[in-house]
Design brief:
By secondary structure, the chain is of the alpha/beta class. Helices cover 42% and strands 20% of the residues. The structure holds beta-D-fructofuranose.
């Protein structure tokens, strides 16, 4: 199935001779709530500017489709390309091709194995891993313990960096053992399968750390079925990944903690516009991450998010 998202924001200024009208091509690697939030933030930010329109294509986790999507934007000679690449290797060539064709490229959320891009805007995944490690170290304190790490697709930069941050964050805790790090590809069924076999093998783990809230919740379902009286600690990442997950799960006591991974839609568009308008821009914008590990913190954050959303809707 091919999904096709098409958004345009029409310029209120028709006088091309006064204002240049920029066409922004956005290539999303995946769908889902977290990315919808990001897309909406980009659109909202664009509404504040009258010199740009944006068209968005979603590759629904299909690297081949994303290559076609980017080729479409090259053929259509967009003024700038914004890409969240599906993985680090397969997308490098086509992104390099756009860049070599003179199209500035802003990578967001995920990176590639090449320097052929103009700027990167996204969450700090190494920090996400470090935050998870610090939480685990605090929870297990002096008695130590065992940890299961369920990673995202290790061909994608967030999973690689979260893993690296997590392992390095535990390097000083010799009494904490990561009994397995397994690649569940950001996917629910892989997570369930991996959790089931690993928990049968290591029923005595103390903590299950997953690279996304979705995977953490899927792992918890399996653990609760397998060992209904378990007191495993569950840690996820993303924060606002989907209703009922992330901070909402922390609020309900289903997850013990989540590392907030900001979507940063506004910052992505702001960087793109600076490049288009030939203003000074940062090549690397790392958005801050922080841990939410109590129901009270989660409630506060949910209320703040609601307040911001209703304020935006009123404007
Ligand atoms: C959403 C997602 C998130 C993760 C991000 C990493 O599509 O899978 O769960 O944080 O992508 O790129």
């Amino acid at each position: 199935i091919t999904f096709f998202f098409f958004f345009t924001v029409f310029s209120s200024c028709n006088n091309e001779s006064v204002h240049k009208h920029y066409r922004i091509g956005v290539s999303q690697c995946s769908g889902g709530y977290w990315r919808e939030k990001q897309n909406n933030e980009m659109l909202r930010e664009l509404l504040l500017h009258d010199d740009a329109t944006m068209e968005l294509l979603c590759a629904v986790d299909n690297g081949k489709k994303q290559i076609e999507d980017i080729q479409y934007f090259i053929d259509n000679k967009v003024d700038i390309l914004l890409v969240s690449p599906h993985d680090t290797t397969a997308l490098s060539d086509i992104i390099g091709k756009a860049y070599d064709n003179g199209i500035p490229v802003v990578l967001f959320d995920r990176t590639i194995n090449s320097e052929k891009y103009s700027a990167f805007v996204g969450g700090d995944n190494t920090k996400v891993g470090l935050l998870m490690a610090a939480y685990v170290a605090t929870k297990l304190k002096s008695q130590g313990g065992k940890v299961l790490e369920i990673t995202g697709d290790m061909q994608t930069s967030p999973a690689m960096q979260r893993h690296k941050g997590f392992i390095s964050g535990l390097s000083n805790s010799s009494n904490i053992e990561v009994v397995a790090s397994v690649d569940a590809g950001w996917l629910g069924p892989h997570t369930s399968e991996a959790t089931d076999s690993l928990l049968r093998l290591h029923p005595d783990v103390d903590v299950i750390v997953a690279h996304s809230d979705y995977m953490a919740s899927e792992a918890k379902k399996v653990a609760d079925k397998l060992y209904p009286d378990n007191d495993y600690i569950f840690v996820g990442a993303d924060g606002f990944g989907s209703p009922g997950l992330g901070v909402e799960a922390v609020e309900k006591g289903l997850l013990n903690a989540t590392a907030i991974y900001p979507t940063g839609g506004e910052e992505i568009i702001q960087t793109a516009l600076k490049i288009l308008r030939r203003e000074k821009f940062d090549r690397q914008t790392l958005l801050p991450s922080y841990l939410v590990s109590t129901p009270q913190e989660a409630t506060l954050l949910i209320n703040m998010d609601h307040a911001i959303n209703s304020e935006v809707e009123r404007v």
